[in-house]
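Quick question: who can interpret this fold?

. . .
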Amino acid sequence: MADFHQNGNITTLHNLRTRSVPEMTQELASFAQTRKISLILPCLYSELEGPAMPNILQELSQVSYLHRIIIGLDRADETQFLHAKEFFAGLNQNHIVIWNDSPRMQEMGARLEQLGLAPAEQGKGKNVWSSLGYLIGCADSAVMAIHDCDIVTYTNEMLARLVYPVANPNFPYQVAKGYYPRIGEGKLNGRVTRLLVSPLLIALKRVVGDRDYIDYLRSFRYPLSGEFAMRTAILPDLRIPSDWGLEIGVLSEAWRNLAPKAVCQVEISDAYDHKHQDLSEGDTDAGLSRMSTDICKAIFRKLAADGTVFTPNVFRTLKATYYRIALDLMDAYYNDAKMNGLAIDRHKEERAIELFAENLMRAGQIFLENPHETPFIPTWNRVHSADPDFLSDLRAAAAADEKEFS
């Protein structure tokens, strides 16, 4: 992917293979002397038992420029929390494991419920949001990064390239989004981006007309990547979806709050592979079926907020247009894969397109039937306004868990 193409909507920062990782790391260490850099790892306990995390830990232990690592731990009991603390003890940086299921954290959640500010559901969105709250409460970092914990091809070069655009004080970027090719085990992966998001955005442009927001999303080479870096000043006003629309939601917030020149995408890897979700054709609340519905809802909500009018007829036309475009793109991806010696199962690809088309309609129906739905977790500015002590108490609860179970 070593090209230098710019499309004019957002800046693309390529990897032209002309600079060493140690050189970039040394410069980041220089930036970090006055602009502290923190990393958030939203993590399921089950990921500690997978193949990716031991290598991620080993790679991160070599990173000198990180001020703090915040591990948001979900779906863990007390024994598992203790094991997680031991597991992450090998990190050389200041770090904390936030046990999101602890009694203290449950009490913090109850406080939010009494205020009507609690996240609507459990999941990655809530985990990231809680970790951001802890980081905001620390008030000592200028730059933060987030990446997933199931990356089996992880190297610390990914992190260096991800944070560099927002850590460099001479760059204007407030948000950097990572991108990469999705290749693994001789196959072309990334089904939801390839077969849902890309054709859906093309179909939307044809059906609802030119929208700057659609062109903005189409500028991202991998809009569903879980790798972001941001300057922390924008975090208190960030609205995060609580469902699988997290990545699209963050990009939408960057669109709403920032000028295009403040957003960039950066190539962080030549080959990226992580845990693959099941298609879950028989369960609309699991796997890629649930994910595709939530992503469609996130896009529809943003377009509606900008004035686009959706009706049942619009969604029927959109489905038909999407389906034809997705099949055409499937052929393009098949030929690309074959030329590069990679495998694509055309039958499975078309089954995924059929499922995504149905879920596009399902997302549209949910959108039309729930006009009063509040899709976002409240901003941390709003939480602070409603309960000025909450952020400090959140830090204290995490510290108390850390001390009690040491």
